[in-house]
Write a structure and sequence with these properties.
It is built from 17 helices and 1 strand. By secondary structure, it is an all-alpha fold.
């Protein structure tokens, strides 16, 4: 039913690159082709090569370089009058904005990308951009607004037999079910996503699906050892492809599994590792969630209660400023769990459950491609 996964963001002379190509290889090939296109004045080719450069930088966590690259790709595409390439550049910029926690900018750029893609007749970039919008809303915890869009995109992907996009949509819907407590449904969808990704040779999608399965195994089945095995398998793919963001979220989930199992010293160390990884790539949502886990682990290890309370109050402000729904409730759960009582009334929080959102961008048109 599904063919081999492919990477439509690798365009022009770069279409021979695999969805599983190491990002350092993608960056090298994209940069070489971009320079060659610039030398001969081939603007359309330069724009599309620049897209691969932008995406490689983004997924490697090189935020400033990614920002420059997608903007340069957009300007070059505009000069060439290539609306499809302009849409792809906007998609890359919107995905980067979400990764950086700039949700209003992400919404704006991804909407423009979808509109421009439709006008250009490029159904793939339109679909990826709509998926990016769906993922942005899901990460923010606005499930009511984006569940229907997720399901629509899943149906379209299944109809076209697009493995990578199907995997992304399954993982996104599964994450919503996980965050609303429907663990059995979430597990079944993550499992299907893992199976499709494996058959389609989509290592990135498979890694994210394994991460989702590990989360459910840890929460529902209370089997930390099996969860850690799944995360180790996913980590091998992340390292092989140099997926910095996916690896950091894998480590944060490892911290979650260890914390739930009462292995607080190990959890502390892994959360600290994940925090450093998120800081290196300027990923505010990941930083905040890793910090939350770290604060909780330190509290379990005997840290001063007043210092813990101060850190949690600051985290509540940070999570709300990022634009995550229910952030206040997330921190209040931590305070209650640690016997600190509730925070004083403040502004309404915003974000999802600590099971952060399978990113699935992604790196597919949302999680997998966007992640």
């Amino acid at each position: 039913m599904y063919g081999k996964a492919f990477a439509p963001e690798y365009q022009g002379a770069l279409t021979t690159l695999s969805v599983n190509s190491s990002l350092t290889d993608v960056l090298a090939a994209g940069t070489e082709q971009l320079r060659a296109a610039e030398r001969v004045g081939a603007r359309a080719e330069a724009a599309r090569s620049g897209l691969a450069v932008a995406e490689a930088h983004r997924r490697l966590g090189q935020v400033a370089d990614a920002d420059r690259a997608w903007k340069a790709s957009y300007r070059t595409a505009r000069e060439a009058g290539d609306e499809g390439a302009m849409a792809w550049a906007l998609w890359s910029g919107g995905t980067l904005a979400r990764q950086r926690g700039a949700f209003p900018l992400a919404w704006r750029l991804l909407r423009l990308a979808a509109e421009l893609g439709e006008h250009a007749g490029d159904v793939v970039v339109r679909g990826y951009s709509l998926a990016g919008l769906a993922e942005t809303g899901r990460i923010q915890g606005d499930y009511a607004a984006v569940t229907e869009l997720h399901e629509q995109l899943l149906a379209e992907a299944r109809k076209r037999g697009e493995a990578r996009h199907t995997v992304w949509a399954l993982e996104g819907i599964a994450q919503i079910h996980r965050n609303t407590g429907a663990y059995d449904t979430a597990y079944a969808m993550f499992e299907e996503a893992a199976q499709i990704a494996a058959r389609a040779e989509d290592r990135r999608g498979h890694a994210w699906a394994l991460r989702g399965l590990a989360d459910i195994v840890s929460v529902r089945d209370q089997d930390p050892d099996r969860a850690l095995e799944l995360l180790s398998e996913a980590e091998a793919s992340c390292r092989a492809m140099n997926l910095s963001g996916a690896l950091a979220y894998n480590h944060k989930m490892r911290g979650n599994v260890l914390y739930r199992a009462g292995r607080y010293e190990q959890a502390r160390d892994v959360y600290a590792q994940a925090l450093a990884e998120f800081e290196a790539m300027s990923e505010p949502r990941g930083q905040a969630l890793a910090r939350l886990g770290l604060v909780k682990s330190l509290a379990r290890l005997g840290r001063d209660r007043a210092e813990t309370a101060t850190d949690l109050a600051e985290l509540a402000r940070v999570l709300e400023s990022i634009g995550l729904r229910h952030a206040g409730r997330m921190v209040e759960r931590a305070r209650t769990e640690l016997g600190l009582g509730l925070l004083p009334p403040a502004g309404q929080g915003s974000g999802a459950d600590d099971a952060d959102a399978m990113a699935h961008s992604a790196d597919g048109a949302g999680t997998e491609v966007a992640r």
